[in-house]
Amino acid sequence: MSERSGPLADDPFGGRRPTSHERTTGQPWDASYHGGPAPWDTGRPQPAVVRVAAAGGFTGAVLDVGCGTGENALYLASTGLPVLGVDVADTALAIARDKATDRGIEARFEDVDALRLSRVGRRFTTVLDCGLFHTFDREEQQRYLASLAAVIERDGVLILLCFSDVAPGTGPHPVGRDELRAAFDSGGWRVVSVEPERIQTRFHGDEGAPAWLATAAPS
Ligand SMILES: C[S@@+](CC[C@H](N)C(=O)[O-])C[C@H]1O[C@@H](n2cnc3c(N)ncnc32)[C@H](O)[C@@H]1O
User: Fold this and answer.
1) Is residue 93 one of the residues assigned to a domain?
2) Closest C-alpha to ligand 1, atom 7
3) pLDDT digit string (tens) for 36-91?
4) Which domain holds residue 130?
5) Which of 28, 73, 129, 179 sits at a 20 to 30 Å CA gap from 112?
6) Which residue's alpha carbon is nearest to atom 14 within ligand 1?
């Protein structure tokens, strides 16, 4: 599944076009994982993910898109679900695989671009996006939603956690509720719910940052 072999091995973007976030920062996502934990990498699953899982919101095969170092994927796998985590940051994927081995948890982690998910070659009942959607610009968001549609079951569910713009002190890339709904509507998705939530980060204290927890289904 790796997109980082052969002549592309020296390309920090693995042959893909850098995303808008990478063009803005001038760094590949992988650089976020060098020299210590990334700002979002709390070393624990997000409380919102744990709560949704406890309520039975994750079923069947699970895809965690932009899985980072795998805390959410590993938590879901520890509940007995088959989980694949994908990311473009090889360093994060290596950390996630090491955690899986150390904790004795069965989960797979692969280098796959979220904008080209059809490469995975299978569909999932539940897809988790924790902190990826909000890093994309509008054009990427539409490509991303189309990419997701290629790997979700017809009766599958997308669970998405992103920074919101409802209060000061939110994270980078805050998203408005209407903006989120509009992206889903024009991307061929049916919004089931968009609820206020919090995202834990390493720099927002115990309260975390204002967020949306959105649930959507392919329409
Ligand atoms: C804000 S971090 C969130 C990581 C993880 N979900 C978490 O909660 O800790 C966003 C993640 O998305 C990954 N990412 C960014 N663009 C991507 C793309 N086009 N395809 C796959 N992963 C991507 C980054 O490498 C990073 O790990």
Assistant:
1) yes
2) 68
3) 999 999 999 999 999 999 999 999 999 999 999 999 999 999 999 999 999 999 99
4) 28-218
5) 179
6) 66
The ligand 1 atom at the shortest distance from the C-alpha of residue 69 is 9
Is 10 a member of any domain? Answer: no
pTM, full prediction: 0.95
Residue 145: closest CA among 156, 133, 159: 133
pLDDT digits (tens, 9 = 90+) for 79-108: 999 999 999 999 999 999 999 999 999 999
For residue 91, what is the domain's CATH number? 3.40.50.150
Q: Is residue 21 part of a domain?
A: no
33 vs 93: CA distance, rounded Å? 10
CA distance to 86, 103, 151, per residue, from 62 (Å):
11, 19, 11
Coil vs helix vs strand at 41: coil
Tokens found for residue 111: 């280098």
Task: Name the closest-CA residue to atom 1, ligand 1.
Answer: 131
DSSP assignment, residue 204? Answer: S
**How is residue 170 written in tokens?**
């939110």
